[in-house]
Amino acid sequence: MPILHSIIHRIDKGDGETPARLVPAEAPLAASTALDDLVSGLNDAYHGKAKNWGRFADDEPAAFPAALSAFLDGERDFPSLTRALAEQIVPLVDDHLPVGGHLLVVDHRQGEARYLILALLHHRDGFGIDDALGVVPARQLNLAQMTLAARLDVNQWQNGSASHPYLSWTRDRGGKKLSEAFAEALGAREQRDAGEETRTLLKAFSDFVENEDLPEEASREKTDALVDYASDQAKLGEPITLEDLSELVDEERPKAFYEHIRNSDYGLNPEIPPDKRTLNQFRRFTGRAAGVSISFDSHLLGAAVEYDEDGDRLIIKKVPNGLRDQLKQRQGD
Question: CA-CA distance, 224 to 226, in Å (whole number)?
Answer without folding.
Answer: 5
